[in-house]
Amino acid sequence: MNTLFKFISVPLTFLRDYSCPMAEREAWNRNRAAILPVTMPFAFFALSGKFDFFSGDEDAISSNKFYGALTGILLIPGLIIAILIRFKTKASSGPGLLISTYAIISFVMSIAWISFTSDCIIDLLRLFGFITNLPRPLLALTILSWGNCLGDLTADLAMTKKGFAEMAITGTLAGPIFNILVGMGLANALNIFNSPKPFEATIRLSIYKYDVEAEKLVFDEQSVLPLVMILAQLAALICLLANAMKNEYNIHFNFNLLNTFMYCVVVIFLVSYSIIVQPDL
After folding, report:
1. Domain end residue (candidates: 91, 107, 133)
2. What is the pTM of this model?
3. The pLDDT of residue 202
4. CA 159 → CA 165, 166, 226, 236, 238, distances in Å?
5. What mean pLDDT do residues 3-17 have?
6. Which domain, by its residues, includes 210?
7. Does pLDDT of 211 surpass 70?
8. Torsion angle of the four alpha carbons 111, 112, 117, 122, in this order, in degrees rounded to the nearest 10
9. Which is deepest, 55, 70, 92, 132, by most CB within 10 Å?
10. How many domains does one find in the chain?
11. Whole-number Å distance between alpha carbons of 221 and 262
């Protein structure tokens, strides 16, 4: 099993290392640092989805030509920088300015890698839903959401065991707030700006939709899942505030049981709703 995993991890690790710069002095590698200025432009455009090698339409071909030419232009200064890094830096330690610059670029390239892997996960999830014929909201509610939070869960548990409970609580609240405000806000903003009239575009946030044939508002069954999740989040935050005010801002054990019970009830309801009421989603 480990050997099979290496066939996947080793190529991906190699591509990541030679497209994403090192961000720490301890990770300095002069040969790798000299190669990165040449590989980063193509890697950034490829990870951002600017190249489309599997489509034959004119827009994809013109986009490939444009970004291919741009990559070729950026290759010239990249080669010059690569030569300077290779022959003007020490093998044991890198210049402070270069390390700081690489740290900033590493942040940008990390976002590009996260975006690329997220697209791959979504595609695999859609493929899994197509094979199993399970509703897409059900997959998003379980597999996608659990996988998205496993890293935070592990970090929060580790911090709590080491005695940093306040830091763990802050992380559990700050993470979802960032995802909701920045993630959803940025996605909706880009969706609006891509519309023909961005300054007149709106996003419908209602449990009703307009039926053109009936010429009236009808209940939108697809809005039940996000509506219940929003209400459940509000209920959890209200319970957290009430618990903190009652116990002098200390989290009581009963609150943890209440939260777990609330989550189980919400998930069971939504899973049942997705399978029984909306099997065609």
Report:
1. 133
2. 0.67
3. 61
4. 7, 9, 30, 22, 24
5. 81
6. 204-281
7. no
8. 90
9. 70
10. 2
11. 22
